[in-house]
C-alpha cells in the first residue's frame, strides 16, 4: 500500500516482479482509506504480507482538514464545500509517526493471522526505501 504519488515505483523499490503484488494506492498511503481493498486482498486473494509505504515530500504533510475544505469551497463553491464538510482528509504532520500509527492500526484490525505488516518510507529523491517498523 503506497501513496498515489506518481514518483513512487514500488516494484522497483522492493524488487517485485510484475504480477507478484497487489499495489493499493491512495492519497497519503492511508491504511484507513485502503482497508476495504486490503481485506479483499487478504480474504479473497491470499495476500501474506502488507507493506505500508509513505514517502518524503508527500502533499498530505502540508495541509490540514480545514485548509482542504477551504480549497474545495474556493474552487468549487458552497455546494461542494457542503459535500466535504465532514470528510476527514487523513492528513498528517509527522511522516514516520504516521507510518507507525498505520501499521499499529492495521495490526489491530482484520489482518489475517500470520500476515506480516511492516512500515516503510520511500525517499523520492533517491528511489530507495527505508524500514520504519517491522
UniProtKB/TrEMBL annotation:
PANTHER family: CARBON DISULFIDE HYDROLASE, CARBONIC ANHYDRASE. The keyword Coiled coil does not apply. Zn(2+) binds at residues 3, 5, 55, 58. Reversible hydration of carbon dioxide. The keyword Secreted does not apply. It catalyses: hydrogencarbonate + H(+) = CO2 + H2O. Its cofactor is Zn(2+). InterPro entries: Carbonic_anhydrase, Carbonic_anhydrase_sf. Its EC number is 4.2.1.1. This is Carbonic anhydrase. Gene3D superfamilies: Carbonic anhydrase. GO terms for molecular function: carbonate dehydratase activity; zinc ion binding. Belongs to the beta-class carbonic anhydrase family. It is an enzyme of class 4 (lyase). Binds 1 zinc ion per subunit. Keywords: Lyase, Metal-binding, Zinc.
Amino acid at each position: 500500500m503506497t501513496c498515489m504519488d506518481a514518483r513512487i515505483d514500488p516494484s522497483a523499490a522492493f524488487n517485485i516482479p510484475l504480477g507478484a503484488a497487489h499495489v493499493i494506492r491512495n492519497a497519503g498511503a492511508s491504511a484507513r482509506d485502503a482497508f476495504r481493498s486490503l481485506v479483499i486482498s487478504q480474504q479473497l486473494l491470499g495476500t501474506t504480507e502488507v507493506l505500508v509505504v509513505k514517502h518524503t515530500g508527500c502533499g498530505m504533510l502540508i495541509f490540514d482538514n480545514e485548509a482542504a475544505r477551504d480549497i474545495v469551497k474556493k474552487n468549487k463553491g458552497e455546494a461542494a464545500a457542503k459535500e466535504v464538510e465532514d470528510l476527514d482528509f487523513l492528513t498528517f504532520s509527522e511522516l514516520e509517526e504516521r507510518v507507525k500509527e498505520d501499521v499499529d492500526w492495521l495490526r489491530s484490525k482484520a489482518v489475517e493471522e500470520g500476515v506480516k505488516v511492516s512500515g516503510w518510507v520511500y525517499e523520492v529523491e533517491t528511489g530507495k526505501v527505508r524500514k520504519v517498523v517491522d
